[in-house]
Amino acid sequence: xxxxxxVIDIAPLLAADPAAxxxxxxxxxxxxxxxGFFYVTGHGIGEALLADLDAQSRAxxxxxxxxxxxxxxxxxxxxxxxxFPVGGxxxxxxxxxxxxxxLGEELGPDDARVRAGWPLHGANLWPPGPLKQTVLxxxxxxxxxxxxxxxxxxxxxxxxxxxxxxxYTAKPTILFRIxxxxxxxxxxxxxxAWGVGEHTDYGLITLLAQDRYGGxxxxxxxxxxxxxxxxxxxxxxxxxxxIGDMLDRLTGGEYRSTPHRVANRSGHDRLSFPLFLxxxxxxxxxxxxxxNASSGERWDGADLSAFTGTYGDYLLGKVGKVFPSLxxxxx
Length: 331
What we know:
- With 331 residues, the chain is α+β, with helices and mostly antiparallel strands.
- The chain is 28% helix and 19% strand.
- It is built from 9 helices and 14 strands.
- It has helices at residues 18-34, 47-61, 65-68, 112-115, 131-156, 163-167, 245-250, 311-322, 327-330, and strands at residues 7-9, 37-41, 82-84, 90-91, 94-95, 99-104, 173-181, 196-199, 205-210, 216-219, 229-231, 239-243, 260-262, 270-278.
- Strands 1-2-12-9-14-7-6-3 form an 8-stranded mixed β-sheet. It has a 4-stranded antiparallel β-sheet with strand order 8-13-10-11, with no helix packed on it.
- The chain is globular and about 55 Å long.
């Protein structure tokens, strides 16, 4: 029987009823322990905003490469922003069958983080037209929803609701991507190229909007169903939320960062919109009180407990492998 990811209405986390908030937190805790992935509804992001984001992103990716190339990642400097072509990003050393626009929190030259020269912080590169304001509105709304999810996660761990905001996300690292997965020719199902190969995310949580075509797959826990892959098809009005490596580290693996991948088998061009809500760049992420740093055996053999340094150090170590040709720009 096919397994399905849970769907959780987080609207009570945006309200003030303690009992309702506790009930939602319990659902989130169960999902974090079982799958590390769940759908989020009641997030407060308007349908019109999502529709505008989709339409304007499609218009951008329909442009010739020469026009998209007017805002290349090579021009983004240490902020690491801009467009990359199909095959320009690597996962586990292999080119992904996707192109994308790298964005993040819009920071001006007077921001202390920019003045300090922090990599992955700064101004975005924008194409002409309305996409800039749409993205900024979407990032603001999704960040609010993400902070609410983190309150639910804190409550699920018997921590104060503001635990993560107080310690890690008062000034979070916010990165946003718009990915375009080109349509592939018909296949017998075995030889599709991976839009994104198997991987885990790096920070606390990811909130993902995806279009109607799907393609996301989540690796199920080996102890439940043999570790097979679970489809995560789009649900109207819902975002997909998943755990990153830092939440895995914080909980000693109780909340595991789950491997996932994408193959666009739809026959259509697919878009996805992940927002990464991560610890502050200069934050040291330590295990929660009374917990071990070790998260046990991982899919990639990595030991999250062995890492030392700030979240920024961890993030740079990862993204330097994703775009090796740009590595010198930020490291």
